[in-house]
Amino acid sequence: MGRDANRALYLLALGRMGWDPSTHTYVTRRTAAGLSKPEIIRCLKRYLAREIYRILVLPPVAPLRRPPLGLLTTHRNIVTAHLQPLGSQVAM
To answer: Measured between alpha carbons, how far is 7 from 76 in angstroms, rounded to an integer?
Structure first.
């Protein structure tokens, strides 16, 4: 299992180096600091492992509860704000 996880992290690091602009900036900065490509990949794998661990360990965010029925009829814009996904809320 350890080898499989290590390979998965390696492939994720290589993939991010190719398509993620922030990772590409990080690689450029670390290369300028004198690190070799294997050392940079090792650092990226550590970062990815911490990121994945947080996703696996932290409990998911509880869904928003629906407001009472009275709010559905009187404050329509508030209800629509509650029903939208978190990233798509617009300022009102």
So the answer is: 50
